[in-house]
């Protein structure tokens, strides 16, 4: 997972500015001996209140430029599929991304153990005012 062209690490917070597009790239590589697909990859932003509650109702705080859902026809063995999109933060705050993959042939969510997706934590901050503004 890349945020603004930088690799994500669950221990690192990706910083961005409110009102500036944040690019997101998710690369899925098939390490099995068989082709997989069709798949749906969905990115869902949420706020974690650190008390067991996760707020997914962020329509007024963050929006996607384009879609938050990507359809992947098939990934052959040892090959990859890349999903690219962008987010726009409308307010300051800390947001996490929940990235889910669903098998479209069975309509079931695939176990997270099949993937090594890092946790994505983005901190949106105010853009500093320019001198003379």
Automatic annotation (TrEMBL):
Recorded superkingdom: Eukaryota
InterPro entries xrefs: Ig_TRAPPC9_Trs120_4th, Trs120_TRAPPC9
Pfam families, per the entry: Ig_TRAPPC9-Trs120_4th
Residue ranges of every copy of the Trs120/TRAPPC9 fourth Ig-like domain listed in the record: 15-95
Protein name: Trafficking protein particle complex subunit 9
Gene designation: TRAPPC9_4
